[in-house]
Structure formats: C-alpha cells, structure tokens
C-alpha cells in the first residue's frame, strides 16, 4: 500500500518484530502499512475518537484481524506495556505529545522506544526529553509536499545536554549535514526578523519578543558553527 513520505519515514523507523502502539492513529495508515508489510504482528491502534477508529476497523480484513487491535483511549491510559513494545505518536503538536508522555511517563520508560512526529513546536519536545532523561537516537527533518516535519525517536536513558541550536533544529545538526535544515533555518530567520520588527514597533508583547530572540539566538549558534 502507498502512504505519504512522512508516514513512510515514521514506519521505517519501526524495527521488524516489535509490538506497536500507534497513539492517535486517526485513519490507521501506519498500522495498516506495518501489518501489510509484515513489519509487526502485534499492533494496538488507539484514538480518543471512536469515529476515527471505525474508519480503520472497516479496513481490517480477515488477514489483519489477528494483527491489528483498536482501543478508544487517551494516550497510554488503560494500556499495559509489554516486552518488545514501542509506540508511535504522530500528526499532533509537540505540546499534546508532551502531555501524553507526562500522563504516563513511567509507562513510556518501559517501552523500547517511541517515535514522534510533532507538526509544531518540536523544540519544546526536545527540551522536555532532554530534561527528563530520555535519549534521542534519531532526529531528522524531511519535506513532504510543501510542509516540513521533524521526526524524533527516543528511549529511556540519560542524554548529553543539548545546546540551544540542537534543541531548535535537531540533535544531530552538527553531525549530519542536511541542506534542507539550513534552507529552513534561513526561512525561519527572515520570518522572525520581520516578527521582531513588528512587535517592537506595534506591540508590548515581551513574552513573544523573548521567544523570537531565543529562536534567533539558536540560529546564530548554528550559523557560527557552520562558519
């Protein structure tokens, strides 16, 4: 079956033979892909919406009914973690992902690893992981259509302290030269310079200005490293 580049990159981080929990599965494209490609034989697809799960359940035929199970729940609530099990959390904001992790953080630590794709605010997710003793072993940027996506895989375990540039643009930015990242940084820089000028002229939003200045500082760190 064909899926988007984003979902394929996520699915390809799942090692063959792992038990999988797909949190916030929506239409269930990742579970279907993993099952049909014999990557996993034990998949639990969850969502807070029974209506969304019904769309997946309608696609589960006799060949898949012993592989894919569904459960209406919020995050990992009501789920017992098994050996050789991982989780996928994709297609939602970093704040929502952090809330899911925080609600059941001890369960998260029992998983072999977690694959996340946050569609906004991934610097917050990296900071949370770094401050709560989770080790990032995969962290990369892709472009699918017109949108950019950060994909992060992490597991329980203490990591080194990440710099501000690594928090914003990826743990491996200084080791894996990705032209896509540098192009994105240039776009973010120009956009935030405009934001800063407008706030300084027309607003008293100091908190917003502080966030922009932090983002610009992260960009300066990366550019200085490149030079």
UniProtKB/TrEMBL annotation:
GO terms, molecular function: tRNA (adenine(22)-N1)-methyltransferase activity
Domain of life according to the entry: Bacteria
Protein name per the record: SAM-dependent methyltransferase
Transmembrane segments: none
Pfam families: Methyltransf_18
Ranges in coiled-coil conformation: none
């Amino acid at each position: 079956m064909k899926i988007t580049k984003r979902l394929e990159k996520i699915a390809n981080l799942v090692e063959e033979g792992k038990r999988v929990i797909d949190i916030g599965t929506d239409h269930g494209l990742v579970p279907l892909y993993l099952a049909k490609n014999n990557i996993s034989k034990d998949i639990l697809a969850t969502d807070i919406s029974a209506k969304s799960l019904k769309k997946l359940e309608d696609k589960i035929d006799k060949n898949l009914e012993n592989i894919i199970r569904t459960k209406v729940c919020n995050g990992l609530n009501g789920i017992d973690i098994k050996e050789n099990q991982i989780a996928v959390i994709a297609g939602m904001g970093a704040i929502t992902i952090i809330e899911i992790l925080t609600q059941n953080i001890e369960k998260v630590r029992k998983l072999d690893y977690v694959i996340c794709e946050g569609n906004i605010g991934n610097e917050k997710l990296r900071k949370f992981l770094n401050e709560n003793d989770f080790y990032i072993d995969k962290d990369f940027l892709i472009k699918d259509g017109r949108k950019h996506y950060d994909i992060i895989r992490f597991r329980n375990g203490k990591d080194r302290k990440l710099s501000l540039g690594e928090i914003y643009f990826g743990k491996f930015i200084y080791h894996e030269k990705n032209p896509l990242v540098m192009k994105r940084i240039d776009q973010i820089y120009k956009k935030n310079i405009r934001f800063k000028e407008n706030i300084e002229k027309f607003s008293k939003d100091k908190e917003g200005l502080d966030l922009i200045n932090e983002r610009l500082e992260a960009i300066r760190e990366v550019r200085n490293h490149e030079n």
